[in-house]
Specification:
The relative contact order is 0.08. The protein has 21 helices and 17 strands. By secondary structure, the chain is an alpha/beta fold.
């Protein structure tokens, strides 16, 4: 039985350790048929980007060519005419996946070390360099002159090309990781300026370049990081070309499950880890599949591999009314959004960017193309549903436990506990800068809290019923259980809280808000009048309203 390559991203190690490997070497031939000199592949994290670049490194690298040739025995590429390209080029392989520093000075230090380590692999080149180039080489190798770093990759390609008399392949993995970290930690402009110069020098009009391939999560283009790089072609998750090169197809997953004698669980695996659509190809998350096979438990594996900062940050910066649309996807419905080819850090307050980020990062899938850059979006699978249910609740609503206690109290009719837990959330997780006199804020806050109940309840917001329009309703999918109608009010003082909560109950009764839900067969209806003043809350309850 082959080992599972959990956390192994080095192609050679996987092959020589007899690990289970899903053959992606057909990608090599496809790349060689593609006339674009520089290619950027954007995919969510943990979808095999690093492993694929490692495979390319061992395939093309002129060093140890004969030894590396053995790694491809029995794989698709071995019987392909493109196998003739194996071992023909010097290769520069650089991964930025671990550059996640808190400040620009620390970031520069790590980049200098990364480039120094890269040069150290080619220290034998020093003997072939003239005095001038030797100085430039040593500036990077010994971490001397900081001004030399923007040309470090181009200069190294020059030295390699002159040494081997062959143009150079440049592979850059996770190009955007330092940029995302820079945004998170407040040194974005410095990072963008540095990487713009580094990538431009290496990939734009580099006479020593044979082919350049980059990977990342986002196409950070609007800020001009690739300005003037007219030979760059981007292949993202919306493109059909190369759609099966990253991630696992259903056939590949089925074979892996059969190999490890888990084939009978295919339907459950599909529910949890399928659902991604790259181009028109259905794709599974490889990290989750590997961990599922290892643990044989249907759990959320992928969402725990990142701090999800950017998602949280956009949710916080966007108007909280974003929850109204998340309500739709939580309940398995589609929403229609315009999705562009790039992501803008300079427009983070635009709600549009949250949908871009959620799609490109793998939290939402494109269900179908509607024309004019518009797509129908939905949550791809149970694993991502659990992200919004757990990680999201922990970040915004006081943690999973306090939220669970609040919802359990609501469903069991223990309204004193429900009120107390809601009060705890307001006190610990809501800023005084956010609360105010507008009912809409509280409406969306409460709506956000109950989104994860959508498997048990059909959740409606601002729908007409009786003689008016209620705020929120929870209609149980099991009609033997209680339904809930919530009406929210904002008090002008702490003393007015109870009065406003009772006023909400009276409004629901007088306007017969229970009419629609009763007509659909719900016999037990609990109505809650909830009043807010700043971070204070009061809940009043009434049962079985007459329609």
């Amino acid at each position: 039985m082959k080992l599972l390559p959990i956390g192994i991203t080095d192609f050679k190690e996987i092959v020589e350790s007899n690990c289970y490997y899903v053959d992606k070497t057909q990608w090599i031939g496809e790349l060689l048929q593609d006339g674009a000199k520089v290619k950027l592949f954007t995919r969510p994290r943990r979808f095999g980007k690093t492993l694929n670049l490692s495979m390319l490194q061992y395939f093309w690298d002129i060093r140890n060519a004969e030894e590396n040739r053995k790694l491809f025995q029995g794989l698709y590429i071995e019987s392909s005419p493109y196998m003739a390209e194996q071992g023909k080029y010097p290769v520069i392989f650089l991964s930025f996946k671990d550059i996640k520093e808190r400040g620009w000075e620390e970031c520069k230090k790590e980049i200098k070390k990364l480039l120094s380590d890269l040069y150290d692999k080619y220290h034998f080149l020093r003997e072939s360099l003239n005095q001038r180039d030797l100085k430039y080489f040593d500036d990077i190798w010994l971490e001397k002159e900081e001004d030399s770093y923007s040309n470090a990759l181009k200069d190294l390609s020059k030295y390699l090309c002159q040494y081997y008399q062959k143009k150079v392949v440049i592979l850059i993995d996770e190009y955007d990781t330092p940029i995302l970290s820079a945004y998170e930690n407040g040194y974005y402009e410095e990072a963008i300026s540095f990487f713009r110069n580094l990538y431009s020098a290496a990939l734009k009009d580099n006479e020593y370049l044979q082919i350049g391939i980059m990977t990342g999560i986002l196409r950070v283009a609007k800020e001009g990081i690739f300005s003037g790089l007219n030979n760059l072609v981007v292949y993202g998750i919306l493109d059909e070309k190369y759609s099966s090169s990253f991630g696992l197809t259903e056939t590949e997953v089925g074979k892996a499950l059969e190999y490890y004698q888990l084939g009978d669980n295919m339907e459950k695996v599909k529910e949890w880890y399928d659902g991604y659509l790259f181009g028109k190809t259905e794709i599974y998350n490889p990290w989750s599949i590997i961990n599922y096979i290892s643990n044989q438990k249907l759990e959320a594996y992928w969402i725990n591999t990142s701090n999800n900062f950017l998602v949280y940050d956009l949710l916080e910066k966007a108007n909280i009314s974003i929850f109204e649309e998340l309500q739709e996807v939580f309940q398995g419905r589609e929403i229609e959004k315009t999705i562009d080819n790039s992501f803008s850090f300079q427009d983070m307050t635009n709600p549009q960017e949250i949908w871009q980020l959620l799609v490109y990062s793998g939290y939402l899938k494109t269900e179908k193309y509607l024309g004019d850059h518009r797509y129908a979006l939905r949550i791809p699978n149970q694993e991502i549903q659990s992200f919004f249910k757990k990680s999201f609740l922990h970040r915004f609503l006081g943690g999973v436990d306090i939220f669970h206690d609040m919802i359990t109290a609501l469903k069991k009719g223990k309204m004193e506990i429900f009120e107390k837990k809601l009060q705890d959330i307001l006190l610990t997780k809501v800023s005084y800068h956010d609360v105010g006199q507008e009912e809409k804020y509280y409406h969306n806050l409460v709506l956000g809290m109950i989104l994860s109940m959508s498997k048990e309840y059909e959740i409606h917001s601002n729908l007409e019923s009786g003689y008016g329009r209620y705020d929120i309703s929870l209609e149980p999918r099991d009609k033997t259980k209680s339904g809930f109608i919530l009406e929210l009010k904002v008090a002008k003082s702490k003393e007015e809280l109870e009065k406003k909560a009772k006023e909400a109950l009276e409004q629901m009764e007088s306007k017969k808000y229970a009419t629609e839900i009763k007509e659909r067969g719900i016999t037990n209806i609990v109505t809650l009048g909830i009043a807010f003043y700043g971070k204070k809350v009061k809940v009043q309850v009434s049962n079985n309203l007459n329609a």
